Each structure stands twice: as structure tokens, then as C-alpha cells.
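Worked example 3. Consider a protein that binds tetrahydrodeoxyuridine.
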Amino acid sequence: MSISPQQLQLLITTSLESRRNAYAPYSGFQVGSAVLGSNQKIYGGCNVENASYGLTICAERNAVFSMVKDGCRQILAVAIALPGGGPPCGACRQVLAEFGRDYPVYLIDSETGSVAAEWNIEKLIPVAFRPDNLSNPPK
Ligand code: THU
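Given these inputs, the predicted complex is written out as C-alpha cells:
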């Protein structure tokens, strides 16, 4: 499964622009993310920290929740922007896995704006706990 070069460029730009709004006064580590939904719209997210440190929310989950809030429940691709280009945390992998299978996850180096690595959600979280693992899966 792949996306067009134009969609990838927009995904990268959105992740970088979202990162600029990151609220990370405690860690000083800014992260941006962008999600392409099956409705062809792109949703951005940034990390938002809190004085009660554990309440911090990651950039990826903010982007996914924004997509769901807009009525879309299918991810086609994800971009994550941070210095050097790094992978999503375990909690974000689990949330990303809820809304699609086998889609690309682009790790963007925020210093250069280019793709540092291309992953896939199945490789990032193999054997994820999924909705159909529940005894009463949602319809
Ligand atoms: N962070 C993200 O936004 N996404 C990740 O996948 C890993 C970590 C944020 C959380 C925190 O605000 C900062 O990066 C340092 O961990």
C-alpha cells in the first residue's frame, strides 16, 4: 500500500508545521505528526505536556484523535517529525494499530524535513491487541 508523492509531501509538511506548535516546556522535545485518513484529509498533531507530567499526550495520538473527531476511522499513512527521525512510542503504536493495517509510517527528520526511514504499522507493532480480540468486538 502506498500514497502519492503529493500526499507524502503534504503529510511531511503538516507534521513539520504541527511540530512548531508543540507544547513541550518540560522535556524541551518537540514532536509533530500527521495522519492521512481514508477520507483523503490530513490531520496534524503535536505533543502537549503538562505540569502533572504523566498527563502528557504524544503528537501521534493527538493527530489520530483529531481524525476520529472528524468522523474518519481509517488511517492510510502517518508521518512523525522529530530531530533525527525517530519511531513512535509503544502507546502510540497501539493507538495507531486500532485504525488500520499495513499502512506506511514515515519517520521525518525535523532538521532536514526529509524521510529518515519508512516503516509499516505491522512491523512497528506485530501481533497488536485489536478490536476483534475482544469478546464483544465493536461493529
Ligand atoms: N513524544 C511524542 O510526542 N511521541 C512519541 O512517540 C514519543 C514521545 C513526546 C512526549 C513528550 O512530550 C516528549 O516527546 C518526550 O518524551
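Take a moment to read the result before moving on. The first helix runs from residue 5 to 19. The chain has one domain: 5-130.
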